[in-house]
Amino acid sequence: MRAEATAAMLICALTACSAPSSMPAPSAAPATQTAATASQPAVAVTQPVKTDCAKASARDFDGDGHDDIAIGYTGRVGRVHVLSADKVITIPEPPGNRAVDFGRSVTMAKVNDDDCIDVIVGAPGGTVAGKTGSGAVYILYGGAAAPPRRLVSLRPEKDANFGESVAAHGDLIAIGAPNERPGGAVYLAEKGSISRRITQETRGVPGTSEPDDHFGEHLALGPLARGGVGLMAGAPNEHQDGPGRQDSDGLDEPPGAVTVLHDVTAANLTGVRLPPPTDKNGKPCGSFGENLAYVPHAGPAALSADCGLLQFYDLDLDLNLTRTVAAPGPSWAGALSASGDGQVAALWNDDNDPALLLLSLRDPAKDRRISGDHLRYAIEGGMTFSGTRLVVGLDWTADLAIIDLATERAELVKAATGQLSVGSIAG
C-alpha cells in the first residue's frame, strides 16, 4: 500500500458525534453526551526508525514522549499501525504467507530493557513448518531497537491459531492457541522467549481439555493481592456440564468458562473456575469468557454480553464476587477494558442504544455513561485505555474514537484505507 494512501485523519462534525437526547441512562448515573473536536490535525506516515528511548513515556513505541496506540487490522493479509501524536507509524508486515492474519491481536509490553514499549502482534493464520493456520506472534521492538522477533508454538499444528489472543503484564506475555488439540492451549513468553505451555490437562489447572473448548481464545494478565501474576483464560465454547470429558455433539449451546490461575510463574500451578453468570431464569449466560480484564488493585472482571452482566471478583485466592453491573439495555456483543488507576470501561453493543459505562470500583457513585452515535459502530472487544483517553475501535468510516475522559469529547480517527477493518487495539 502506498504511503500517501495509508492514513488520513477524520474528525466528525458536532452533529455527527452527539448522542440523541432521548437515549436512556442507567440508574447508576445520568446520561451524558459526547462532543466532537472541530480541528483537523496534520498526519504524517512514517516507518519505524531507530530511536533513543531515554525520553519515552510509559506506553511510547517511538520514543517521542507521547503514549501511543497500536491498531491491528484484519484483511487478506492484515496490517499494524501505531498512532503516535500527529503521525501514523506503519509496521511492515513479515514476508510471505507467514503473515496471514497479521494484526488479528495486539498488545504492548516492555520485553527488552530500554524505555520504549514493544508491540506484540498475533498472526494466527500464519504457516509454520508447512502447517497452515498454525500461527505466529511477532515482537516489534520499540525504538526499532532490534529486528522483529517471531514466536511459534512448541508443537506447531495445522489450524491451531497460535496468536489468536495476546495479553501482557510487565515483560510476561500470554499467547492463546485456542484450536490446538484437544481443547486449546496458552503459552507464556518471558523476555521474548517461550517458557511454558498450559492446557486444561496441566496439573493444577481446573477442567478437562475437550474438542472445541477454545481454551485461551481470550486472555488477561494481572497482579494478585498475595503476589504473583494471575492469568484469566476464557474458553467460550466450554460446556461445564459435569466431570470427565464430554462430547459436544448434541449438547446445548455452551455457556463458556473462565479459568483464573493464581500465579502463572509458579512451579506448581493452582487455579479456580469462575461461576458463570445466569439470566433472570437461572440459565447460564452464553459465551462467558469472551470479554476479560484484570483491574489493578481490585481483581478480575468478566463481561457476559449475552446476559448484559459485568461481574467483578476480589484478589483473594477464592475470587469472591464483589460487584455485578447490569447493562442499561439489550446487547449483542461487548467490550471491556481496565486502566492502570483502576477505572473500568464496559461497552454493550446495540445498534439502537449502545451503552458505554465508565465505572469507579472505589466509588460507584462516580459511575457515568458516555454516549455518542459513533458507538453504534464499535467492534466487539476493541477498546483500551491510553493515558487519560479511552480508545474505541470502530467498524465504520472511522477506525477509532479517541475519547478524552475529562471532557468526554471524541476525536474520530481514520488511520488506514482499502479493504482493512480494525480487529484489535492496545494502548
Outline the structure in words.
It is a single chain. This protein is globular. A hairpin with a 2-residue loop joins strand 12 and strand 13 (193-198). It starts with 13 loop residues before the first helix and ends with a strand. It is mainly beta and 427 residues long. The protein is 1% helix and 37% strand.
Structural class designation: mainly beta
What is the number of helical segments per DSSP (H or I, 4+ residues)?
A: 1
Q: Helix content range of the residues, please?
A: under 10%
Radius of gyration: 20 Å
Number of strand segments: 30
Portion of residues in beta strands equals 35-45%
Average pLDDT: 83
Q: Which outline best applies?
A: globular
Outline:
This protein has 427 residues and is an all-beta fold.
